[in-house]
Amino acid sequence: MGYKLSKYLYEDEKEGYVFLYNTYKVDMLKIKKPLFEAIKENLSDIKENPENPVIAKLIEKRYLVEDSVNEDREGDLMYLKTCHSNKQLLLTILPTEGCNFRCEYCYEEHKQNKMSEETQEALIKFVRKNLKYYGGLSVSWFGGEPLLYPEIIEHLSEEFKKICKNFKKPYTAIMTTNGYLLDYDMFCRMKKCNVTNYQITIDGPAEVHDKQRFLAGGQPTYDKIISNLTDIKEKEKSKFYTFSLRTNLTVQSAKAYPKLAQFLKDNFFVDGRFTPRVRIAWNGTNDADYEKNIISDISSIFGEGSSLEQTQENLQKSMYGITDENALRKNFNEIMFAHYPCYAAKANSFIFGPDGRLFKCTVHFDDSKDGVAGYLKPDGHLEVNDTIDAKWITQMTAKDKGKCYDCKAYPLCQGVGCPYKMSVRGRRDDECEAKVAEIISTFRVFSSNEKICADVEEMLA
Ligand code: SF4
Ligand code: SF4
Question: Cα angle vertex 43, ends 42, 47, to 5°?
Fold first, then answer.
């Protein structure tokens, strides 16, 4: 029979060990170098169900695959299962594009609109017509600021719950909110709407956050958000409700990040329901050099090395050195999850604006002809423009895909990652390199934690 090393492994060598980073299983382990070399030399002699427990473990976790396995075709299947699945009907709903904030880097136009009753009814009819094709309904409330109109969320949630009950299918919901209106009473209202996960942005200690994220009238927002979250943390005991605390890095917030990190560690991350998520702030343009420039500015703050990889590593060390052990695995998975195909690449994902327009991506709504892929009719019928839809929910050309087949990050990104960058606008080699560098540095940072990256022999002891 014989085995080979999976093509989806990165290898690092440190202190007599080989560290193996596995993007297929999103797993890692370390193995003593001489043992690894011996296994590699005898791969062709490995039989089915080997007695050697180390080899059995490497096969089980897909570090080794049978010689006959065609990993490229499995990669194609993986993409089909991820992006053309009917497991769930995924809806992202914008009750409004309006917002009570005016964040410095925000790309939205803050149209002061509100989903009409007619559009709400059309949406309910759409779900009623289509849920039979899916295994369940999952809604993400988005905006603008969705909590400006909680009554819309309540009405739609109630109807969605009834439809799901009739079809005997599960209903789940999450929300992206700025957190200003999320006091404990509002949280309880949203509990009744099945909202169990929130993404809330805190950009720094008050003096930084309030300069980046302020109300439409310019007033500060930090104290109110922190007091809302503290209240919820103290009053709500269920582990069911989780909060991703996101920080958008600009040069200012990067400088202040260590202070914020310490505060969040002491006050929130000690509670496993709260997890950090750090991203480079988006500046609302398609300026491909923006991210590179800001990374280079930020790198000078976070450490000696100025390479992207070194920056990511320093950043992540500063983030994950601060969380408790139990939250580590969750954080690791969450960061890796960010590299998987975005919902915009999924045929089962629909983003509805307040006027019933079908968007594909929550960043590029209105700014290009590719942003609007259809319209919801009052009877719940969705009129889709296939020419636009195809740009988002198919992989890139076969020629470009050749690069992906050689890419060890493929099981995460699957050739689409961000379909806007990889397919609609066109894939760029430097962006792929940046993605790969981030993936490797994430593995490296977590590899120093024994709970996540154990010695394979000790695992079996
Ligand atoms: S990172 Fe780039 S080359 Fe690698 S799988 Fe994604 S799109 Fe393809
Ligand atoms: S397609 Fe890209 S830009 Fe749009 S939401 Fe997805 S990851 Fe973001």
Answer: 100
